[in-house]
Design brief:
Elements (H helix, E strand, L loop, with lengths): L2 E5 L3 H13 L3 E5 L2 H7 L14 E5 L7 H9 L9 E5 L14 E6 L4 H12 L4
Parallel strand pairs: 1-2, 1-3, 3-4, 4-5
Helix pairs in contact: 1-4, 2-3
């Protein structure tokens, strides 16, 4: 199963997504903002030994560093540039700013159906070929 990094500052949302994904057999880690996510990913500060997930589920509006800024930093880092990103947002119309981030595989508006997140994780982490 996949390794998933959930980046969301709202504990109830992160707990719900973690529960659904862990129940499906995935390994989940969490971060509360973009800055913490970049540290865990070994992007900032640079850490080539950091264990990368198979997919990042990324909220947009968070304190310290928002999801858009984190996604751009991930795109600009060779280690994470092709890491699939699933964007979760409470604010409509956020798709356009992410057009320049080719790794974004899907968008979900809060409130979302947890099964759609589970299905998207399965889709983007399925073996290619």
């Amino acid at each position: 199963m996949a390794k998933v990094l959930i980046v969301d500052d709202e504990d109830p949302i992160a707990i719900l997504m973690s529960f659904v994904l862990e129940k499906s057999g995935h390994t989940v880690s969490t971060a509360k903002n973009g800055s913490e996510a970049l540290r865990l990913l070994g992007v900032d500060p640079v850490d080539e030994a950091a264990d990368l997930p198979d997919v990042v589920v990324l909220d947009v509006m968070m304190p310290v560093m928002d999801g858009y800024t984190a996604a751009i930093a991930m795109r600009n880092c060779p280690r994470t540039s092709s890491l699939p990103i699933l964007v979760v947002t409470a604010k409509g119309g956020m798709r356009i700013p992410f057009d320049g981030v080719p790794a974004v595989a899907a968008f979900f508006e809060k409130p979302f159906d947890p099964n759609e997140i589970r299905q998207a994780v399965a889709r983007v982490t399925a073996p290619k070929g």
